[in-house]
Amino acid sequence: MTEIPRRAVHRTAKLASLPLGAAGRVAAGWGKRLVGRSSDEISAEFSAKTAEQVFAVLGQLKGGAMKFGQALSVFEAAVPEEMAAPYREALTKLQSAAPALPAKTVHRVLAEQLGRSWEKRFASFDDVPAAAASIGQVHRAEWHDGRAVAVKVQYPGADEALLADLRQLERFSRLFRALIPGLEVKPLLAELRERMVEELDYRIEADNQRAFAKGFHDDEHIVVPRVVASAPKVVVSEWVEGTPLSATIRDGTRAERDAAGYLLSLFHFSAPERTGLLHADPHPGNFMTLPDGRLCVIDFGAVARLPEGLPHTLGVLSRLALEGRSEDLVELLRRERFLGQDTDLDPQDVLDYFAPFVEPMGAERFRFTRSWLQSQAERISNLRGADFRTGRFLNLPPNYLLIHRVTMGSIGILCQLDAEVAAREIVLRWQPGFAAEH
Fold first, then answer.
1. What is the 3-state secondary structure (H, E, C) of the chain?
2. Is 1.10.1040.10 the CATH number for 103-156+200-238?
3. Fewest CB within 10 A of the end CB: N or C in the chain?
4. What residue ranges do the domains of the chain occupy?
């Protein structure tokens, strides 16, 4: 029915290969130490090789393994580009390669979720899916009142695969720490589990979408389609036509690219204050430009819950880095658990690591380019560089996981757009803690 491997033995064997490979590398490391290689060199190589295997194995599975891999990909800059690039490519293929469910199966799910008389709720229903996602597919239909609607149907078995993978991945939590020694893995996995399980219940996604639609109602810049009906494995919302962001990335004009970049940035920074939520799936397929110039946003399964808006700490960290206040920066990082209390890092090294990332906020307008992003990835993934050593001892507190994912994903899209954006203006307006304190 789908490409989600559901046999527990098959999935467990794939995931179980991870610690076995890691054990082999540890043994090899002892051998290299005997012939004179430094422990730092061996540790860096072990981290890179483990990341390579983790990414390769996760990339072969759907369900929870793939979703965990997507979340883990925010750390991919910690490994060399030649390892991360094939992993990104594998995930992209997986996201787009899901086979369409047979019409009979779709109808069965609709009957289970919307009732046996589900057909009466629609004036028409297209059995050929209009789009596919990691755990479901979307059909175009006409609601009984004449409205064009999008009907999202979850793949049968997606929940079983997701939960099985999460159980296996939690057993291997020690292994993932090899990627970044400073990372507190167990609470991070717990946060991932909670967010991923939410994605299985489309009623939660529908509630998220309703909150966004209310927060951006009649907005002059952003459009969120309204929800028409929802059930645990089906959600129906208004159909919207527009130019996909991927098309703008491919052949948009300079003005179209800049406008899309501005609106994407505005949406992500303003949403937490306006809705208490952060859209946590920054993928070009989830955004489109409407004929009137507004940005339409879809797919609200993954969100970060921020009832108080964006964390004040992030604004302060960005400002301290821009102002070059290395000692204050390290003190705040320790207080907020981004650095362990006993981690001995030079404050200047920490500042050097962060400063280039906040560069876009220091100028009135900043041009996001692929070359700029590649230079950042190369800088922090150079196994022999100071930034790689610094980055390996930084921790990501669980409550910042999705924020970090959105930030990295959004920056990636901005660089694909080659957009010039008034980022500082947006951050000053919507990011608490960024404006200078008096």
1. CCCCCCCHHHHHHHHHHHHHHHHHHHHHHHHHHHCCCCHHHHHHHHHHHHHHHHHHHHCCCCHHHHHHHHHHHHHHHHCCHHHHHHHHHHHHHHHHCCCCCCHHHHHHHHHHHHCCCHHHHEEEECCCCCEECCCEEEEEEEECCCCEEEEEEECCCHHHHHHHHHHHHHHCHHHHCCCCCCCCHHHHHHHHHHHHHHHHCHHHHHHHHHHHHHHCCCCCCEECCCEEEEECCEEEEECCCCEEHHHHHHHCCHHHHHHHHHHHHHHHHHHHHHHCEEECCCCHHHEEECCCCCEEECCCCCEEECCCCCCHHHHHHHHHHHCCCHHHHHHHHHHCCCCCCCCCCCHHHHHHHHHHHHHHHHCCCEECCHHHHHHHHHHHHCCCCHHHHHHCCCCCCHHHHHHHHHHHHHHHHHHHHCCEECHHHHHHHHCCCCCCCC
2. no
3. C
4. 8-97+158-197, 103-156+200-238, 242-438
